[in-house]
Amino acid sequence: MSELTKMTIAAARDALGKGEVTSLELTEACLTAIDGADALGAFVHKTPDLAREMAAAADARIKAGEADKLTGIPLGIKDLFCTKGVPSQAASRILEGFRPEYESTVSQKLFDAGAVMLGKLNMDEFAMGSSNETSVYGNAVNPWRVNGQDLTPGGSSGGSAAAVAADLCLGATGTDTGGSIRQPAAFTGITGLKPTYGRCSRWGIVAFASSLDQAGPMAKDVRDCAIMLEAMCGHDPKDSTSADLEVPDFEAMLTGDIRGKTIGIPREYRMDGMPAEIEALWAEGRKMLQDAGAKIVDISLPHTKYALPTYYVIAPAEASSNLARYDGVRFGHRAKLSQGDGITEMYEKTRAEGFGPEVQRRVMIGTYVLSAGFYDAYYNRARKVRTLIKRDFEDAFAQGVDAILTPATPSAAFPLGQSDDADPVAMYLNDVFTVTVNLAGLPGIAVPAGQDGQGLPLGLQLIGRPWEEGDLLNTAYALERAAGFVGKPEKWW
Amino acid sequence: MSIDEKTAAHVAKLARIRVDDARLPELAQEFNTILGFIEQLSEVDVEGVEPMVSVEPMRLKRRADLVTDGNQQAKVLSNAPDAREGFFAVPKVVE
């Protein structure tokens, strides 16, 4: 049975179409794998009954010859997505017990395309973190290990990454505000795509930083990301920032032919103290794309070093506003009040009990940078620097660059618990290569491309032009084929 | 720019998050670390640069100003920690 869960979405789709396997069989195999993998902390709300019901409906649809793109494919959904009648709490205590009365647009689109939901996946609280250690459910654990030591799967979409890497599901949804799809994908040897801002509707996804958040697919390879993305995106009248653009057939664009494409290598991404293995992988990636017929050019993105500080003004500012809704009135947790407590005490106690330390820290930083007297010095300045960061990319694209190649992360997966005493800024550095992409609203994809000396997976990132995910996926496909990464974690859980 | 305990307490108040007095020195220290990191932005020449409003220069879609939904009181209240007689219940706000 476990062989079934190892299938790619494309392979499962073909097998389902030929009647070689049923969705119910695939789904049962995944449910068994999930029940045997509690040590990974990936699935935090399991929905086996719903999964079987959806699988049976999918089998009926296939039998009737009405299969859609994802009919019968079992997926995991990040806890940030509101799923009707199923706990959706953004890994936060403050949303304890919350069962939405509605379905997020992205999950609804996946289900409309026939996908089966296996359950909800672990993440950092409100998607704030890079190691999945801020979750109210406890840590998600990387299926990859070194000497029996538990490693982080990355964050914030750590549960999604662990579940896909451990073959608990065929694919998963993630969200990416500063690297939360691409960094965990790189840490677990899977593929993850953050689309152009506006490609996927944000409606029904718990908001962190609205100008940066995007949902995207996390899957076993580039083709599966293309299949999932097509089902996830498209205009939604319920999100005024979702783009009213035609959704191309992304899978059909995967030819692997990148001859004549121009790939930029940004010199500012060569950082002091970068591990030699990352540097070497980057050089190999450059050579792979060159061998595939692409033209490689060195480019400059001069404001790169200011991306993280810009992000740590804008994201907390937007978060402090978005998270104001958690007040203990309409949903989730409300603190027990003492005699004489009024409404202010109710807000303050509820939010102190409901938010974890990292969320509290970011809400307060956001409050500070937006407060009277500091708005111009911090928030407006950061928005201006953001304009400059985006302009750097526009200049590169104007010079004819089709895609930009960078490392996905500054290191391989690190041990859980390492960050306990570290200062918060050290953790923020995880997103150094990914955060620029969110600030500029561009599509970016992490592709597994090699392993470090300890055998841990390492990823490369490709950044594309806005709205050209199809072209970006094709370049990633060429890189995937050249890298030939087939590593799998040895099962210990 | 350095944040003292008084400022930290004020920010916590504005954010409506209760922070014990004993934790204020540590909180102020954390703020200073993060703000020290953010401080790098003051090196950048932003003269004449427009602050970004939206990454894609798009005009937000408009829809007809019509009622499209409603009459879902039970659903709206279904997740409330305290709902009574068709309303959200909160501690007394006015004397």
Q: Could you explain how this protein is built, in words?
A:
- The complex is a heterodimer of chains A (493) and B (95).
- Chain A contains 16 helices and eleven strands.
- Helix content of chain A is 38%, strand content 13%.
- In chain A, helix 10 packs across helix 13 (375-398).
- The longest helix of chain A is centred in the C-terminal third of the chain and has 24 residues, at 375-398.
- Among the domains of chain A are: 2-254, Amidase signature (AS) enzymes (Alpha-Beta Complex); 305-382, no CATH class.
- An eleven-stranded mixed beta sheet of chain A has the order 1-3-2-4-6-5-10-11-9-7-8, with helices on both faces.
- In chain B, 32% of the residues lie in helices and 4% in strands.
- Chain B is flat.
- Chain B is mainly α.
- In chain B, a hairpin with a 2-residue loop joins strand 1 and strand 2.
- Chain B has a domain at 5-42.
- The longest helix of chain B is centred in the N-terminal third of the chain and has 15 residues, at 24-38.
- In chain B, strands 1-2 form a two-stranded antiparallel sheet.
- Chain B is built from three helices and two strands.
- Chains A and B meet through helix 10, helix 11, helix 12, helix 13 and helix 14 of A and helix 1 and helix 2 of B.
Main attributes?
heterodimer; A: alpha/beta; Amidase signature (AS) enzymes; 11-stranded mixed beta sheet; B: 95 residues; mainly alpha; two-stranded antiparallel sheet; 3 helices; 32% helix; transferase activity (chain A)
